Every structure is written in C-alpha cells, then in structure tokens.
C-alpha cells in the first residue's frame, strides 16, 4: 500500500471530520450547501404514481428493497429520476431508498457498515473509489470491502473555477500565458491555492490534469487542498482560495454572484469523459443478482429519459426539490441545456457539452468501459497514489483488479433483458484510444506509454 493511502486511512480524510461537525454539500467537486443534509438518512419527495410492475417470474427480484447513497449533484439525477418517475418500480424495485450523503467520506463510511448496520448498500461514486474500497486502501483498518462497478451515471458536468481576482491574468483552458503568475505566487507567502473535495479520485484528477497540461506541477507549484465545499466557497469569497474543481449547477452561481469565472469545463479538457458511477457492495449483488439487474434497468430507462432535452425542464424541477438538491430551478436548467456563462465574456451554448446520461458523441455513456477504469488507476500511479506495480507488465495488476470490480457483464445482461437495442450495447470492454485537449493520448493497450509521454508526474517510468 502506498504511503499516501496509509496516511488517509489513519486520518479518515479531512472530509469525514468535516461531515461530523456539519452537513456539507459536495459536488463531485464543490458548491454551496443546501440545508438539512444527513450522512445516512433517506430523503422523500412528493409521491409519484408508480407503474405496476409486469415482470416475468424468472426476472422477479429477490428483494424489493435497497439503500442507495447519493451526493446531491447532477451525477445523481438518474437515481432520483428512476425513483420519481417510477422506473425502479417498473422493474419490481418498489422500495428503493435514496440516502443523501453529507460527503464522500460519509458515503465511504456508510458503505463500509452496509444497510444492515444503518448505512448503504451502494450508490453514486467518484472513481476509483470502488476499487480503493475493494482493496481496503481507504477503509477503517484497511479492511477490504469488495465492490462492483455496475454502470456509469454521467459524462461532463464539471469544470475549473477561478477567483475573480485573477480575471485578465490569462488563466483559461490553456495556461501558457499564466505561467508567470503561478511562478510569482509560488515564491510568495501565499501560493496559488486550489481545492477539491476528496483526494485521489476523479475531481482531483481533473484539476491536476489541467494544471500539468499547462506546465504547472500540482504538487510543487500550487497548494492543493482537500476542503469541504462550503468552506471553499467562503474562502474564495474572502480571497483566500484561488481555484477549485466545481460542477453544475455551480458555474452559473459562481459567475452570476461574481465570485469567480470558469477557466474550463471538463468537457473541454476531455470531451465525453467518464465521470461518476453506480457501484454496490459485492455481497449485496451476489445475494441479489436479479434485483441488481432490476436496478440497472430502472437506471438505464432514467438515463434515456434524462437525455431527452425536452425533459430537462421537468428534470431540473424534480432534482431541485428541497428533498434532493434544494436549489433554485434556474441554476440547473441552463447548464442542463449546454448553456454556460463562463465569465470574462466567454459563453458556451452547445448541447454536446452538457451533462449527458445515455449517449454522447462516442457512443453509450451508461456502459462501464474497463478501459476507463484503467485510466483512473493509471492516473493514480502517475501522482503516487498507487504504486507503480499496478501498471508494470502491461498493467497486469490493474487489469486483475478491474476484472474483479467492473461488472460490465451484468450491465449487458440487464440491457438485453430490458430490450435495449443491440447497437446501444458495446461489444468491446475498451472504448479505444482517448485524446485530451493538449493532444496527449491514452491507449489502454499501453498505459506505460501514456505515463512516459507525460512531462509532469510523480512516478518514474
């Protein structure tokens, strides 16, 4: 185990401590908190007419009950819509409880104890949290808790926010013209300070990739912190935070409230990138294989519903409710339609850049490609979060872990049972070569070559 995760295991991440003193709204990045969050309590909204399940006996779920954790952000929409529009109930899962989590650390703690102990059976996760929990790298006492990744929930919906004091400094998608600013701040008593809400997972990776692509070492040239979201926003308002990784609907508020501007959307950094996922405790899935597929069918139907832009006003109204996101509808609708006021006079109006749940320009969003899991693990090695042995020998150790955790086979079975068109069911566990905004390419057949191509990294290859 790496020293990084030894340290995290001992201090249980800064977020867990933050959650114990007050409920915090966490984006896959950051944002202002709604009221009355809990780390494990379920939320209820206005009742919706539930369709009568019409299920063949061989597909009848073993249980109708499950406890799914979620963070109130756009990634959670398929779970909320599946419950509110009756898609879970349609496939026999009539007792799905959505438990709002105060933080990613709280979600990790709650899946450790499981629903039987008052926690959760699974839910929404940043990557590669399910793999790290499976390995026991971020659990109490480093106890392995096997988990299964079952589907991707979303692509896009995130970005990099910069404090208003840096307007006009050249900080944008590309950082060439802003390098002198970073150098100046590095030598000052107050270095450039940026934040994410949980270390060594995708929101941390987005800001690290963006900085490194611009020639800025995130470990030596900036101060990169793990900070609860409400504290981060307050720090940005008072001028003590320079940047943070954020997501919808916060770009709207950041610019509207003149807190800052958006340097880049993650859709610009990596178009059609993997974002957050549904993952469950392996013991729950193994005990309830039919119920697992019923959950997936409900989520897939919800994802298709969410991707109909004619439904996005209604979707915004549903997820904006106090029981879920507790935000005004208008801060959700524009981003959901691909409309971003980035600040500094820059506007984006492009539905292909919006949060997408079922399909994007590269194909199926919901299907959990193993090649994407490999990128997350490769980035973990890049920054020293995991040892190099995960990637050597053509990533044999990483691939073995992915094969254990990623259950794309269950996704395919559920899709076929749900009547998903054959053309929407991927036939390869790899999406192939991925390309980033700086021209760097990740070939899942050769992750070591990707690492070698990167100028800024902690690992030596």
Quick structural summary:
The protein is an alpha/beta fold and 461 residues long. It is built from 19 helices and 16 strands. The relative contact order is 0.16.
Outline:
globular
| Helix/strand/pairing category | alpha/beta
The residue-averaged pLDDT reads 89
CATH class: Alpha Beta
How many domains is the backbone divided into?
1
Low-pLDDT stretches are 10-47
Organism: Halotia branconii CENA392
Protein name: CmpA/NrtA family ABC transporter substrate-binding protein
Keywords: Cell inner membrane, Cell membrane, Ion transport, Membrane, Signal, Transport
GO cellular component, one term: plasma membrane
Give an account of the 3D structure:
There is one protein chain. With 461 residues, the protein is α/β, with parallel strands linked by helices. It has one domain: 3-Layer(aba) Sandwich (D-Maltodextrin-Binding Protein, domain 2), CATH 3.40.190.10. The chain contains 19 helices and 16 strands. The strands form five sheets. Strands 2-1-3-10-4 form a five-stranded mixed β-sheet, sandwiched between helices. Strands 7-6-8-5-9 form a five-stranded mixed β-sheet, sandwiched between helices. A hairpin with a 5-residue loop joins β15 and β16. α3 packs across α13 and α13 packs across α18. The longest helix is centred in the middle third of the chain and has 18 residues. The protein is globular. It starts with a helix and ends in an 8-residue tail after the last helix. InterPro entries: NrtA/CpmA_ABC-bd_dom, TAT_signal.
